[in-house]
Design a protein that fits this description.
The chain has four helices and six strands, in the order αββββαββαα. The protein is of the alpha+beta class and 188 residues long. The chain has two domains: 105 residues, Topoisomerase I, Chain A, domain 4 (Orthogonal Bundle), CATH 1.10.132.20; 68 residues, 2-Layer Sandwich (Gyrase A, domain 2). It is elongated and about 70 Å long.
């Protein structure tokens, strides 16, 4: 009986941790007005027919607080990297000298900051929904295990309480990440 209880609880916890990790990744790709390698992490480059993350085909670094520098390992990839950057919705126009690509990160206007903060809020809400769906699924599994005789009524109630506590913890982490990102975006 105990294994089923722990199995449901651990699966719920793992899925909630993954939702928070996904939010962290998604927030890295949102501009804040200063250059960070995370702005280009999600970009994929056509590398001999396969879509490859940009970090695997070029060295990504920040030259100063305002410029991301990409040094491709293979110089013939410069046009493909430029094309991938333009196709992504990063909002930065690449500047190339044939050997490396510079991405000057422009300052954000107040309107852009508001849009990006709103976008960050939407991304966080998607992960909040994912965490709540995990809670719903865990509670359903708890009820099924109770009806199937694998859990007692007290164990099922205890499991649902623990899953609810996990949900609150992970929603708090999501709120904290959103607050931090919103402060980065709105800070001038």
């Amino acid at each position: 009986m105990e294994q089923s209880f722990n199995g449901i609880l651990n699966e719920s916890k793992d899925r909630m941790v993954k939702a928070v990790a996904r939010l962290e990744q998604d927030l890295k790709g949102i501009r804040t007005g200063r250059a960070t390698p995370g702005l280009v992490d999600h970009i994929r480059v056509d590398y001999y027919g396969s879509m490859t993350p940009i970090a695997q085909v070029a060295q990504v670094s920040v030259q100063d607080g305002k410029t991301i520098v990409l040094k491709p390992f293979d110089q013939t990839l410069v046009p493909a990297i430029e094309k991938a950057i333009l196709a992504s919705n990063v909002g930065i126009t690449p500047q190339s000298d044939g050997k490396m690509i510079r991405l000057p990160v422009p300052m954000l206007t107040e309107e852009q900051r508001k849009k990006l903060a709103h976008h960050a809020k939407e991304v966080a809400e998607q992960q909040r929904i994912a965490v709540r769906n995990v809670r719903r699924d865990g509670n359903k599994e708890s009820q099924v295990a109770h009806k199937g005789g694998k859990l007692t009524e007290d164990q099922a109630r205890d499991l649902e309480t623990k899953i609810t506590d996990l949900t609150k913890q992970h929603e708090a982490k999501i709120d904290e990440l959103l607050k931090k990102k919103t402060e980065e975006i709105t800070k001038i």
